[in-house]
Amino acid sequence: MTSPPNPKILQLGHSPDPDDAFMFYALARGLIDTKGWRFEHVLQDIQTLNQRALGGELAITAISIHAYPYVADRYILTNCGSSMGDGYGPMLVARQPGSVEQLKGKKIAVPGEMTTAFLALNLLLGQGSFQHEVIMFDQILDYVAADRADAGLIIHEGQLTYRNQGLHCLVDLGAWWKEQTGLPLPLGGNVIRRDLGRDNIAAISTILRQSIQYSLDHRSEAVQYALDFARDMNQELADRFVGMYVNPWTLDYGEVGRQAVRELLARGHQQGLLPDPGIIDFVYPGFPI
Can you give the pTM of this predicted structure? Predict the structure, then answer.
């Protein structure tokens, strides 16, 4: 008797953060049927994943929505897996209260030039109106508290923990975007490499959605798993953070979510901050490649 073929192996890139860990809990623990696919989890910060996507290195990866126009020739967005800030999102924090106008010409620590947070910051302040230094996202709070930058652009759990450093929020970019557009701020998404082919892309996207649904249906155990990825957060805070970024938007962008992606990238292009995104594809039942 011949042995069955080895399952196909796919590298899946995502951030080492509680929301991404929550989403992919079922995949990491083998709790759903993956139809013969095997997923190798590659945990790296989002700026690194953005850079790797430029070369098409990973079959599936989380990326910043800001990065999508740069990789659209290689990848297609899945209609699940989004991180949406609906009236909240990345924050500018500083040692003293103040206005964002005071940051013109000042140095801001940022988590990466291809992050959506950095795109939103440029839309708010204007490109070239401030200095910036790229700092690993989980070091920005300490960097600002140590007076090594005038302000910091914080993402992930720093949005809930910055007060522990005695810092003050100058602006919440998700709230600002909502006021400007009435839309949620699309921060991150999942993409699949186009060369996997239509049928495989559809099947893989379905598996990713099932993983997210499993975690939402088994929230307590999935949050407990995600705690291993929660820096400086107890279970209550981790659960709150997961709820901010893994929700119905994550299961399906919906028309509003897809409109938010198009609007953000269109405004970025209009202001010369990124290439023309062209027609933005999302994987959905019956989608064309």
Answer: 0.92
